[in-house]
Amino acid sequence: MSERMSRRKVFGLGAAGVAAAGAGAIAARSLVQEPPVAHATTSDPFPFYGEHQAGIVTPAQDRLHFVAFDVTTGSRAELVDLLQEWTAAAARLTQGKEAGSFGAAGGSPEAAPDDTGEALGLPASGLTLTIGFGPSLFDRRFGLAARRPPALADLPKFPGERLIPELSGGDLCVQACAHDPQVAVHAIRNLARIGFGKVSVRWSQLGFGRTSSTSRAQVTPRNLMGFKDGTNNMKLEDAALLRDQLWAAAPDGADWMAGGTYLVTRKIRMTIETWDRTSLREQEEIFGRDKVKGAPVGKQNEFDPVDLAAMKPDAHVRLAHPSGHGNAHLLRRGYNYVDGSDGLGRLDAGLFFIAYQRDPRKQFVPIQMALARTDPLNEYIKHISSGLFACPPGVRDAGDYWGRGLFG
Predict the structure, then answer these.
(1) How many secondary structure helices (H) and strands (E) does the chain include?
(2) Which of the pair, 289 or 27, is modelled with greater confidence?
(3) How far apart are CA 95 and CA 11, in angstroms?
(4) Rg (Cα) of the chain, in Å, rounded?
(5) For the CA atoms of 319, 323, 328, 332, what is the dihedral angle to 10 degrees?
């Protein structure tokens, strides 16, 4: 039996299988995670190993492919095997390598290749892969109910939301961010291929044009409404704020989540055509910022201190401001999306909102509840998808894997 077929037997014929030896062969030195900094070029790789997962405070890349999976196997051992395989593949992919050690053209010609090949010749393009575990994973299937973190409490129903169930939730999620859309899509495609027979795709989302900056080295981007988005976002340089507001700690109630964080996603469709017919004055009053400069009401520059008293009581900036929510901050790294049209000539477009935080109960929930109740922006947006995930700490070395603390 060939080495390739032996590996397939170990990991199941439905999965491509990335051998542990393949993970060990990766040069660990080149993968050890240092504090993320802006790239010299957009082709460079980010380190994979480190205290925290990459793709959170990493300077936000230009492209996104996000996917939520349902676990279809009922075997805890098979789920752990899959997480080990995924981790080995992710370590390779983020460094610009093929998903498996044999690659697209190696191994037996009678067997399916262990890389799909569409990213051959492309650089790493700043690819990061970030995993999260949804509340539904902590049911009775895998004996994890007692290990569900308190902060992974189901989100409440917010006023006015119209969520599509099949576009929400999921047992697992993987966020792929890169500067090249083909690199991001290739990564998700190969993880889904490796997971065949153990997981199935529940929903996915492509994104472009980041709508937040996660480093002071980046300029503030714009959303599809034309406004600068995330001006006062937490940044990777804010070490003390990140420690307080982003990273989970053992005293929070789940020791395996120490060094991890919690992710909330929301697909927010915008009624672009109605917004485009709204006067500039009304648009600026709704947001509480100048559309061109991004300056808060009454100020001249984007980063001038916000004067809440100068703007309307229901301005978006005022309703979401940390001062109204016990100093709660979010680390946002959302993306614009356009999914074609709805058949009536209207763009199916908006914001795929992504926010990381230490405890959604104390951060996202009160902020979103205030916005859902009185934000005039609700006239132009509709929340149609929602996700909540616990993102474990980073992978330390080639002997570690995503979620080891949960299953160990």
Answers:
(1) 11, 9
(2) 289
(3) 23
(4) 21
(5) 50
Each residue of 279-310: b (16+ CB within 10 Å) or e? eeeebbbbbbbbbeebbbbebeebeeebebee
CB of 309 closer than 8 Å to CB of 298:
no
Tokens of 90: 């992710």
What are φ and ψ of residue 384, in 5° steps?
-120, -10
What CA–CA distance (Å, rounded) separates 282 from 284? Answer: 5
**The dihedral of CA 250, 253, 257, 262: what is its sign?**
negative
CA atoms within 13 Å, Cβ hemisphere of 279: 3
Q: At what angle do helices 76-93 and 181-194 cross, to 10 degrees?
A: 150
* β-pairing verdict for 331-332 and 347-357: antiparallel
Helix (H/G/I), strand (E/B), else coil: 298? coil
Cβ burial of 253 (10 Å; 0-12, 13-18, 19+) is: middle
pLDDT tens by residue, 270-327: 999 999 999 999 999 999 999 999 999 999 999 999 999 999 999 999 999 999 999 9
pTM (two decimals): 0.90
Beta strands in 179-222 (DSSP E): 199-210
| DSSP code at position 93 | H
Cβ partners under 8 Å of residue 110, min gap 6: none
Q: 204, exposed or middle or buried, with CB in 10 Å at 0-12, 13-18, 19+?
A: middle
Max CA pair span of the chain: 75
Residue among 228, 227, 163, 159 at smallest CA distance from 378: 159
Strands (E) in 53-188, as ranges, are: 63-71, 128-133, 172-178
Single-letter amino acid, residue 131: I
- Residue carrying structure tokens 């009536």: 344
Q: Are strands 331-332 and 261-270 parallel, antiparallel or unpaired?
A: unpaired
DSSP 65: E
Report residue 155 as tokens: 């989100």
The token pair at 169 is 């939730």
Give the pLDDT band (50/70/90) at residue 2. very low
- Do the Cβ atoms of 215 and 209 come closer than 8 Å? no
CA dist 379 and 167 (Å) reads 22
Q: Please, which residues bridge with residue 240 across strands?
A: none
**Local confidence band at 223 (pLDDT 50, 70, 90 cut-offs):** very high
Neighbours of 159 (CB within 10 A): 12
